[in-house]
Amino acid sequence: MTRLLLLCALAAFSIAPAMAGSFAGSSAGASSAGSSASSGSTSGDDKVVLQARDDAAGFVASDGRIRGAMLEAALRHLREGSLAARQASDMELARAILAQ
């Protein structure tokens, strides 16, 4: 149930740009999300989360021992915008970021 709420919270950050055609992804994943981030076509909110993917991968792979600055910024950003994200663990949010 928590995972579903997290995915919904993350989807909320990507819905508006997706409707505008500037973000090609969804909460289920997107192959062009990386190219969108590098082209500068996403909004500032989406960039915070998208740019944290590498840090999130390191965090998950190290079982939480490696915490990058980009991941910390994304976690803070997600928690500011969502009650579900505030209730989720750092690991759950990192996995949700990777699922995007």
- Unreliable segments of 5+ consecutive residues: 14-42
What integer value in Å does the Rg equal? Answer: 12 Å
Element-by-element helix/strand order:
HHHHHHH
Structural class: mainly alpha
Number of strands: 0
The profile of the biggest β sheet is: none
Distance between the first and last residues' Cα: 17 Å
- Classify the oligomer: single chain
- Mean pLDDT, to the nearest integer, reads 73
The proportion of residues in beta strands is: under 5%
Helical residues, percent: over 70%
Q: What shape does the CA trace take? A: globular
Q: What is the number of helices?
A: 7
Domain module count: 1
Summarize this, please?
The chain is mainly alpha-helical and 100 residues long. The chain is built from seven helices and no strands.
Detailed description of the structure:
The protein has helices spanning 2-20, 33-39, 44-50, 53-61, 69-81, 83-87, 90-99. With 100 residues, the chain is an all-alpha fold. The protein has one domain (2-99). The two termini are 17 Å apart.
